[in-house]
Amino acid sequence: MSLYNNHTGSRAGKRARNTVIVVLLLLFALATLFPIYFMVISSFGDPVEAGAVSYSIWPGKFTLESYSFFFNYSEYSYRWILNSTIVAGAVTITNVFFATMAGYAFSKLRFKGRGVLFSILLAAMMIPYQVTQVPLYILIVNTFQIENTYSALILPGLVTVYNVFLAKQFMSSIPTEIMESAKVEGCSQFQIFFRIIMPLSKTVMAVIAILTFMDSWNTFFWPFLVTNTMDMQTIQVGLKNFRFANTTYFSPMMAGATISAVPMFILFFSLQKYFLEGVTVGAVKG
Known about the structure:
By secondary structure, this protein is mainly α. The chain has two domains: 2-42; 75-280, MetI-like (MetI-like fold).
């Protein structure tokens, strides 16, 4: 009887603990999703209200006028989206390619100074992003004189140390025997990389693509620094044009923010399978 009571009490304790965990996770999910919900709901507000928004979680009426206002407000609205697509797409492609190549070199190739060079790269990860902006700005504006161009927006983000580190850690788990077998068959390093390493690295490449695209698409500070005309602004910088000294076109701004969030959702859910695999890879070792 005592064992039965202990067993029953143990099950009741587990159920209570699981209930608390579920409630906490639900609260965390609601706190995470609420800003997105508020952004989308606010985008259906009346644009003529401007800054007189009531901040209600359920608007009195739903209208698409704010979306129409966003595209009709400026001739550059479409250009902002195009600029963000070009910049984020180019940065994503270069990061996937160069980070994968660098990760392959650091993980599988033996060359003099490899450990020192990789340690320097790791040390560079510790430098805050904001610290590098001033010297980078001087380099772009004064030395190369390419401000207000796609080159100024893309070149600083061609490849990041974090992506190199991510690719290197993933490729370290690829058996070296595969490469040795390819070398016996007469494959060169480039053939090994393109025909063997890249197909086996789809998971980490997808993770790099998702993280890089989201970071580049959402970046505000650097495009704000190096662009000085509306036709070269990205969508995140362009949204600031809806704010004035005396008022803010709140609903159209939220409409633009909602539109800018759509590509990220599409990219994430289309590559969600690879992203989840990339998060869990290496978690369990046999």
